[in-house]
Structure formats: C-alpha cells, structure tokens
Design brief:
- By secondary structure, the chain is an all-alpha fold.
- It has three domains: about 40-105, no CATH class; about 120-240; about 270-385, no CATH class.
- The chain is about 75% helix and about 0% strand.
- The chain has 20 helices and no strands.
- It has helices at about 1-55, 65-75, 80-90, 95-105, 105-120, 120-135, 145-150, 160-170, 175-185, 195-205, 210-220, 225-240, 245-250, 255-270, 275-285, 290-300, 305-315, 320-335, 340-345, 350-390.
- Helix 6 runs parallel beside helix 8.
Length: about 400
C-alpha cells in the first residue's frame, strides 16, 4: 500500500510539472504576442513621424507633432511600452540624420520620463537608466536639467540603478556632472561600486576624453580612495600624457598603496625613463610585506631595457613569492630570454626558480599543443567542406 501511494504521488508530481511547463510556455508565447503588438503600434507612429521629417524641405528641422510627443510620453511611462520602444530602436537606422532629428525632438519626453521613473521601484528606475545608456543620447551640456535628474538616480539603494545611472551619465553627461557623480558614489562605503565597474563606465564616455581627464586629475583628492583608484586606471587606458604626475604619486609615501600600485601599472603601459630606477628599487626590495610592489614592478619592467633590469629580474626568480617569480619570468621572456636560457643562467640550484621555470615550460607546452589541435581542427573542417563541395 505504501509503495502504491509513493507511486501515485510521484505520478502526480510529474503531471503537475508537465502542466506547469505547458502553462508557462503558453504564458511566454502570450507575452511575445503582446510585445509584438506593442512594438507594431509604436512602429506605425514612429515611422509616420520619420516620414514627415524625411519629406521636409531641409530634412532635419521639421518639428514632429505635439500630439505625438504627448502620446509617446503617456505610452513610454509604462515599462512594457518602454521595453517595446527599446526593441523598436534597435531595428531603426540609428546613423541616419532623420533618426537623429527625431530623437533630438523627443528629448522633452525623455526628460519627463526621467521624473516618472525616478519615483518607480528600483528595477524600473534601473532599466530606464539602462535604456538611456544603451542608446547614447549624446548631450554633454553644462547646466542641463536632464543630467541633474539622472544624477539623482545615484542616490537610490539599488546597485544596478547606480551602475546604469553612471553609464547613462557617461553617454550624455558633461565632465562636471561626472565629477558630481563620482563624489556621490564615494559617499558611504556601502554605496561604492567595484572599481572595475567605475572604470568601465568611464571608458564608455562619449565626450572629450582629454577634457574629462584634466578635470578628473584636478579634482582627484575630492574622491574616495576606491574612486581615485578607478580614475587612475581610466587615465592609464586613455592617455600617456600623465607620466610626470603619476611618478609623483608613485614616490609619495603618504599615498594609499592601491594608488601607488596603479601608478606602477601605468608605467607598465607607458615607458618613462625616470620611473625606471624606482621600479628597480621596488623589485630589489626584499621586504616580504611589500611583495605587491615587487610583483607589479616585475611586470612593468618588461618595457625597460638594460642589463641591470635583466639582472634584477633574474634575481627575482629566486624569490619565495610565486607572483614575483611568475611575473619576472614573463618579463624575462619579453626581454628575449628563453626558459632554457634562464635555467642555464640560474644554474638550477634554487628550488623556487626551478619550480617556476618548470611550471612555465609545461604551461607553454600545453598552449602550443592546444594551438596545434585548434589548427588541425580548422584544417579538418576545411577538408570536409572541400569534399562536400566536390
């Protein structure tokens, strides 16, 4: 009797899962149809306005109808309609002058929507900022009310809202509004984004990068330390014109360790002769508590020639720290030394150096084998395609 109950119960569970999957599939199909209807309704309205702009005498300055602006504001204040408009915009030719003229005249609608979605729950507010960042409404104007409203989205508790608001401001914000945004992000440890997220957002900035970097550097000390680190990383990716000022940070013992490490990475990307002795001093430092300086300097010195650099890197191969040895081995390879030559110079008596070179040799062999297998697979595929063609 007990076995029969278990069997019937198992059958009931399976039947329930089938019914759930069936109903969920029908629900998804219904959602897709509703989205198609919304997109089609918006498409008819938008294409009508695009056609009128296209047929205008100058093709650009023809104003769209006020009734259309009112209709769009009312429609797009619903999140499902905004999703449909997002999908429609992907289908349009965003490089055309007609499209640019249409979007420019929709700016009052986006301004009104910014106030509407600011009052909504965090998910909808985050999506609105994502929508703005995705379509890159380039403005970069000072004293712009729209930017001020989007800036206020950074005060929300949602992490996604903060990220998307920052990306939106990077797509159309002025340098000064971005300064305010970075200060806001640094207010309170719990509100700070990961440094890589901030750097990635800054890299999407569509305005004058040189003007932005100049302002960032001038106001660097106003930001919280994690934001300062992100700013230095952004400068490293964007400009090699700050070597002198980066060297000042590197030499300043009062600076936070992460900022000095960021400066070392900067000199690993941009060769700067005055930084060379400082990097060597870090690499030759035997203090185990300062291993990060040595490890990152070992990587940076790949760009600096000289027998003293090679000798320092060879000595670093005897370090007990794995990261220092690994980075030194990579830099020595960049200087033209093979792992066999390194092993001959080091003699093989040091266990740390021997283990690292053995590890690098095995890793290199595995990489070569993987590359050979990939090449063989490509050749085999081409051969099969040729045979199929015959």
């Amino acid at each position: 009797m007990g076995a029969e109950v278990l069997l019937y119960g198992y059958g009931l569970v399976c039947a329930s899962m089938l019914v759930f999957n069936l109903l969920y599939g029908l629900h998804l199909r219904s959602d897709d149809r509703r989205m198609e209807r919304r997109t089609g309704r918006l498409r008819r309205q938008v294409e009508k306005q695009l056609a009128e702009i296209r047929e205008a005498s100058d093709g650009i300055s023809h104003p769209i109808q006020v009734s259309h602006l009112t209709w769009m504001r009312r429609r797009l204040s619903r999140i499902n309609e905004l999703l449909a408009f997002d999908q429609l915009m992907e289908e349009l030719d965003q490089e055309s002058a007609v499209y640019e003229a249409y979007i420019h005249q929709l700016q009052p609608v986006f301004l009104q929507l910014a106030t509407v979605y600011w009052k909504r729950e965090s998910t909808q507010a985050a999506y609105y900022c994502y929508f703005l960042a995705k379509h890159k409404f380039r403005r970069h104007m000072e004293m712009d009310q729209f930017q001020q409203i989007v800036l206020s989205y950074l005060k929300k508790d949602s992490l996604y809202c903060k990220i998307n608001a920052l990306k939106a401001l990077c797509s159309f914000g002025s340098p000064s509004i971005l300064m305010d945004a970075l200060v806001e992000l640094g207010n309170g440890q719990e509100s700070q984004l990961h440094g890589k997220v901030v750097t990635e957002a800054l890299l999407s900035y569509t305005g004058d990068a040189d003007a932005l970097i100049g302002l960032l550097w001038a106001r660097l000390d106003r930001f919280a330390l994690p934001i300062q680190r992100s700013v230095l990383d952004y400068i490293r990716f964007q400009s090699g014109g700050y070597c002198g000022r980066m060297l000042e940070i590197l030499k300043d013992l009062r600076r936070d360790k992460e900022l000095r490490l960021a400066a070392i990475r900067y000199f690993g990307k941009y060769h700067y002769a005055p930084a060379r002795p400082v990097l060597l001093d870090f690499l030759n430092d035997s203090d185990s508590t300062r291993w990060e300086y040595a490890a990152i300097s070992a990587t940076a010195l790949a760009r600096y020639d000289g027998q003293d650099v090679v000798s320092a890197l060879l000595r670093a191969m005897n370090s007990s720290n794995w990261y220092i040895r690994s980075n030194a081995a990579s830099s020595l390879e960049a200087h033209g030394l093979t792992y066999e030559e390194m092993l001959k110079v080091l003699g093989g008596d040091d266990r740390y150096a021997r283990e690292m070179l053995t590890y690098r040799l095995k890793a290199k062999r595995l990489e070569q084998e993987a590359a050979e297998q990939a090449a063989s697979a490509v050749e085999e595929q081409h051969r099969e395609e040729e045979l199929a063609g015959v």
